[in-house]
Amino acid sequence: MKRVIGAAIALGMTFSVGAIAHEGATGVVKERMEGMEAIGQQVKILVPMLKGTLPYEPAKVEQSASIIESHAGENFTKLFPEGSVGKPSEAHPDIWEDWSKFSELAMELQSTAGALKTVAANNGSEGDFKGALGTMLKTCKSCHSDFRED
Ligand code: HEC
Predict the structure, then answer these.
(1) CA–CA separation, 149 vs 102, rounded Å?
(2) 119 — phi, psi (to 5°)?
(3) Other C-beta atoms within 10 Å of 2: how many?
(4) Which tens digits make up the pLDDT trace of 4-25?
(5) CA of 118 to the centre of ligand 1 (A)
(6) Is the CB of 115 within 6 Å of ligand 1?
(7) Are 68 and 133 in contact (CB under 8 A)?
(8) Ligand 1 pocket member 147 (CB < 6 A)
(9) Ligand 1 atom nearest to 11, measured from its CA
(10) Using an 8 Å Cβ cutoff, are 28 and 81 in contact?
(11) Does residue 24 contact residue 88 with C-beta atoms inside 8 Å?
(12) What is the pLDDT of residues 48-79, one digit of tens each?
């Protein structure tokens, strides 16, 4: 559990940087940044519940997970036409070199967010909630470490 929380905190730090890098983006790049930012906003709601600084509220978790799910999968990958890199985008050119891995991770985000939503919708235990959220956050990290520039 400690490791999951550490990863969540590390993610939290990259969010504020992302928000600044946003300036000047247009078209699909702007759209995907906004999608990612919407996802980031939801994670900000979820992480305090993971750390226990706010109580676990299944209804809120369900709503956040559903927003993340809607921005993942093909809704996300369709915003990456070949070669759409360069400032201010932080997308790595390897995305198109290894498209199957990239799209797999986008699908994985959709399914892990879906699993989190299901736990919350069924009033799952706090332990199950933390487990499902931790699994989802690992997907963010895997994709960012391979496919997003620092
Ligand atoms: C399939 C790959 C992938 C997954 C999974 C993924 N991301 Fe991202 N994320 C990216 C890429 C690529 C960018 C850079 C996009 C750009 O700048 O064009 C990015 C950018 C961001 C940004 C910065 C947005 C901005 O305004 O510049 C935030 C915040 C973010 N991601 C949060 C998350 C969170 C939270 C998760 C997990 C819930 C997640 N991401 C999962 C690939 C992914």
Answers:
(1) 14
(2) -55, -50
(3) 6
(4) 666 665 565 555 444 555 667 8
(5) 23
(6) no
(7) no
(8) yes
(9) 35
(10) yes
(11) yes
(12) 999 999 999 999 999 999 999 999 999 999 99
